């Protein structure tokens, strides 16, 4: 379906419109809304208002770990006890623009955050800044997602490079040039999110476009994460109608989407293993591979669950409006927030069966008070940066 892959600016305009429409009541669109009317408001443990809300760009996925919540929203990084909501520490991030990332990363004792070409590491116990690195000649990507292995962070740029950053020191150890398979007429390609495997293969989906091209195009590139050596790559253009944004690893497969397709390749050779075509839909934000099941949200407001090994469609749920946040898996469930105004959803991890659909506690009296970010989950606690507040609620199912 051509023309469905959109810019982030257009995406947020559409999100605003869909939130407005949802506040006026559900549209009669001819679809059966799975779970509609059966959801209920989750129990609130605690919440706090956002003082300097940047609104739609405030969709960074928080962290819930070892009884604590870590939230980066507006201009602060905050740590709170999950059970009581007691604020343990708060530090300013020094940003006067929306934070340019979709996800906080963490290790045993550190939190990592990126904002375009700046990466910072903080102590988990008191929020102290450990190091800050500003990467020169590095054009950061809006709403990027870093990935990590035991020793390094990987951050993609808009100018054909990936930076490998030492987690202990913040030193940029290596810049991987991702110029392979780029047409001569194109200056650069962007890497929005990557995936690094436990055996240190780095998979980099890319996108590029220039005036005169009919569609966004892109590549899937594979590197040695330790040395930066280029191993293989695949170019997507013409019939695929779209760049690549994310990918995920399952056993010997790397799975990704482009345009109307979800595709699995042998992650060591790049050979195609299976391909799933969605004639009446398309994908912008990419896939989340959760073990034997792969989840993907579509431009037309569906969540699909596929069998990772074969590509078999396990479930299809209409979640209302375009969906652009990250799936979260915890124990036997998958959590998803549709920041396009479609509320929040919980699925059975193995097969995508819908378990719950609802919204923020404040949504019952104020339709503009909604969950917005991806969820962080730990035990019975579910944390979300909303349109007006940060919420910690009880997992409802």
Domain tally: 1
Provide the β-strand percentage band. 35-45%
According to CATH, the fold-level topology is Methylamine Dehydrogenase, Chain H
Low-confidence stretches: 1-37
Under CATH at level 1, the class stands as Mainly Beta
- What would the average pLDDT be, to the nearest integer? 86
- Strand order across the largest sheet: 1-32-31-30
Biggest sheet: strands, sense, closure? 4 strands, antiparallel
CATH architecture: 7 Propeller
Describe this structure in words.
This protein is mostly beta strands. It has one domain: Methylamine Dehydrogenase, Chain H (7 Propeller). 4% of the residues lie in helices and 41% in strands. It has 1 helix and 32 strands. It has one helix at residues 8-23; strands at residues 44-49, 63-65, 68-73, 76-81, 87-92, 105-106, 110-115, 118-123, 129-134, 147-148, 152-156, 161-166, 172-177, 195-196, 201-205, 218-224, 230-236, 247-250, 253-258, 261-266, 272-277, 287-290, 293-297, 302-307, 313-318, 328-330, 333-338, 343-348, 354-358, 376-378, 381-385, 389-394. The strands form 8 sheets. Strands 1-32-31-30 form a 4-stranded antiparallel beta sheet, with no helix packed on it. Strands 2-3-4-5 form a 4-stranded antiparallel beta sheet, with no helix packed on it. Strand 2 and strand 3 form a beta hairpin. Mean pLDDT is 86; it is low at 1-37.
